[in-house]
Design brief:
Length: about 425
């Protein structure tokens, strides 16, 4: 084991959405704090498009969220059989390539501490082809942990973690870094999801196209229910990123996480050809599988070390999306002093308790009590009866008791008897 002479205010493990947002929140609220962000991949951000309603974002976070946004639209549309609605709610998306540029830029502009007087420490210029930002100190075999001193913020990529505690990490090559606070923001793969038998999934395969002529619509269509519903709720999701660049995702709310690219590709191409005769080429692809648990499992809690992102339960169970809660977790941690955010995170957990419980109830309704081919009717009813303000609160994970009553009171979906509905209220474990 080798100790470095590097000490940080924060060590963030995982450079995905949560790790990147947390980095930016800390840099905004505590610009003098030093950060070590460790990512096992070659770049932060991965290959994703994150979409959200701007009203999901608290005012205090907008100064550091706004630079991330790649696209904005003033409205969006949902389409179901015999029903279409245009919602005057702003919508936005973040491209992971742009996200990575902003996060990495935060390290390039980081304030660096003065070098240590320790003669065994060597300051080196960083080669241009690495992600080791600004300065690097060579590992010191016998460094005194108490005399470690920060040299500024750093980003380490292509780095695996072997041990993670609340105040240190050990990398797979045996190097130890110390800090006031370490936060686990590593993602949760489908294979690692601890929700088997207690969870549905939102899964998708998307293709970004470049067209030879303009796409016929300038607004996002976040649900276009134009496919067979025999195996569960399935729809097309479209984002017009520019007049001739369009992201189309085949999205499914399913009982299992399996996803076939070939099947999704054929569905997307058929959808594309039905709406334009333009020539096209595929610029990129992305896929994902998001947990939608219907029991208490996966709710946020205080752990040691603290966990963010999906692994920490910071996601909307009824949609699978993590962005709104990832932003609020980043705000709770980033606005507090290093090592002093336990109270703000605990308050955030309590603030979201009702929404977390109700969203899991909706998932029990969706995946356990309603036939697969009738699930789409729940979503059509949701958009038919709720006001734009109620819809906005739902997606922001700020569901009120009145909103919950509005969603569930009414004619039950096909196959859902009143007694089964009542029983579902008491089956959470």
């Amino acid at each position: 084991m080798r100790f470095t002479n590097e000490f940080y205010d924060f060590i963030i493990v995982g450079g995905g959405l949560q790790g990147g947002l947390l980095t930016l929140a800390i840099r905004h609220h505590n610009p003098d704090a030093t950060i070590l962000l460790i990512e096992r991949g070659e770049n932060v951000g991965g290959n994703h498009t994150w979409s959200f309603h701007p009203e999901d974002v608290p005012d205090s976070a907008k100064p550091w969220i706004d630079p991330l946004v790649s696209n904005r639209w003033p409205e969006y549309v949902v389409r179901f059989p015999n029903f279409e609605r245009r919602l005057n709610l702003p919508y936005a998306s973040i491209n992971s390539k742009h996200f990575a540029g902003v996060v990495e830029g935060a390290f390039r502009t980081s304030k660096l501490a003065e070098p240590s007087n320790n003669p065994s420490s060597v300051i080196q210029a960083v080669p241009a082809n690495t992600h080791h930002i600004a300065l690097h100190r060579s590992a010191v075999e016998t460094a005194d942990r108490q005399s470690c001193r920060a040299i500024g913020s750093r980003l380490l990529t292509n780095t695996e973690i072997k041990v993670l505690t609340s105040d240190s990490v050990i990398t797979s090559d045996g190097v130890t870094y110390d800090c006031y606070t370490a936060i686990d923001c590593r993602g949760l793969s489908v294979e690692d999801m601890p929700y088997d038998g207690r969870c549905g999934y939102q899964k998708f395969f998307g293709f970004e196209f470049e067209l030879s002529s303009d796409w016929p619509e300038t607004h996002p269509v976040i649900m276009d229910v134009c496919q067979s519903q025999a195996e569960g709720f399935r729809f097309m999701y479209t984002l017009p990123l520019s007049p001739r660049r369009i992201l189309i995702e085949d999205t499914q709310f399913s009982d299992h996480p399996r996803l076939e690219r070939a099947d999704c590709y054929q569905s997307v191409i058929a959808f594309l050809r039905a709406r334009t005769d333009a020539d096209w080429s595929i610029l990129r692809e992305e896929s994902g599988c998001l947990p939608m648990p219907y029991t208490r499992i996966g709710t946020p809690s205080l752990t040691d070390p603290v966990r963010g992102g999906y692994a920490g339960g910071w996601f909307h169970a009824a949609t699978g999306y993590s962005f709104p809660l990832a932003v609020r977790f980043a705000e709770a941690v980033g606005s507090a002093a290093p090592g002093q955010f336990t109270g703000t995170v605990a308050a955030l957990i309590e603030e979201n308790r009702f929404s977390a419980k109700f969203s899991r109830f909706l998932n029990r309704l969706l995946f356990r009590l309603v036939k697969a081919n009738s699930r789409w009717g729940l979503f059509r009813r949701f958009y038919r009866i709720l006001s734009e303000r109620e819809i906005s609160r739902f997606y922001a994970h700020r569901i009120t008791f009145a909103d919950a009553c509005r969603i569930v009171i009414g004619r039950p979906p096909s196959g859902l008897t009143p007694i089964r509905f009542v029983n579902s209220l008491f089956t959470e474990k």
